[in-house]
């Protein structure tokens, strides 16, 4: 059996004190790889503030030890002042770590091409090792809207990698269109789900009597609690449109209720004011951001996940919902149709990209009929999106580029 590969992850996005949820999907990819490889993470993070603020963050959070299945690795958050040009601060942070490193990786795994990509590719060349790029960024779909200099930097990075791993086929096509001269192998590797954490709830019983979601589903009322989980960025997630659709659906069905989870950077007050204005404060609630355990609990307590996005790749919350045994309703954008068939299916319902209130009403009516199989939904999530599945997929990519 070959020895574990040594993989250096360089992350443009990664959770930190500056933004606690940015790149949490990158963090999960690293955890999946750590099951089969030796890993270390370098995450250059710009800080809006003084040198004193940067120093304090480095002291509190500059280095972290992580563990999965008894395997440990180091996360190095390289806080630096957010000065222009940003690439210079990132390059200095990565160079400082590289010149002081006492090991050389077998390969560099870059997560998101900008802003850390140029430094990652440069040091990989110096070490003489290949680069694998995982891309999540929806900006490739509107690549020409980026500043010319940023497009140039991104193109140079993508041309310099040995393998491209978009999280969906749709994103892979967008990257290839933006960088037609790229020579990298393309391997689609999806976002990962911790299926040990995201799982169906045990039956809810009170004195041996089914209650809550368990009782609703036994009585055939399994489409009454709708859940939305996202950043609540209205431009991308179209929360305004979803609220309008829910209002129309709730007018027809008095049992419907909805919960919105997330919104770390969103203007929740605007959405809450809309709910009050339309007299729906008893039926639509906003929790604000929650940790993973909080999201799991809501998925277990609700009947369906709903998304109304204008633009996506393939969001993690979809396979997380399936891992918890609940179906998904989503608009047909990005790579979602690669896993959620059009119209009604055994995984949920794929609506048109620009779904109207009437489209949502008809889709919800269709969702009331079927009996949803939580174990089948979970089995599909484990097969494609589990730590084991994604870790094995990445190891195969690594062996391919090294071979």
Short structural description:
By secondary structure, the protein is α/β, with parallel strands linked by helices. The protein has helices spanning 24-34, 51-61, 86-99, 117-127, 148-159, 169-178, 212-218, 234-237, 239-252, 268-277, 292-301, 317-323, 357-367, 374-385, 387-402, and strands at 6-11, 38-47, 63-68, 71-81, 107-111, 131-135, 163-166, 185-186, 205-206, 209-210, 225-230, 257-262, 284-288, 304-307, 328-331, 343-345, 348-351.
In which order are the strands of the major sheet placed? 3-4-2-1-5-6-7-8
Helical proportion, percent range: 25-40%
Summing up helix and strand content along with how strands pair, one would put the structural category as alpha/beta
According to DSSP, the number of beta strands is 17
Tell me the span between the first and last alpha carbons. 16 Å
CATH topology name of the largest domain? Rossmann fold
Specify the number of helices.
Answer: 15
Tally of individual domains: 2
Radius of gyration: 22 Å
Q: Whole-number average pLDDT?
A: 93
Overall, the morphology is globular
What's the architecture of the largest domain in CATH terms? 3-Layer(aba) Sandwich
Low-confidence segments, given as residue ranges, are none
**Top-tier CATH class of the largest domain:** Alpha Beta
Beta content comes to: 15-25%
Biggest sheet overview: 8 strands, mixed
For CATH, the homologous superfamily of the largest domain is named as Glycogen Phosphorylase B
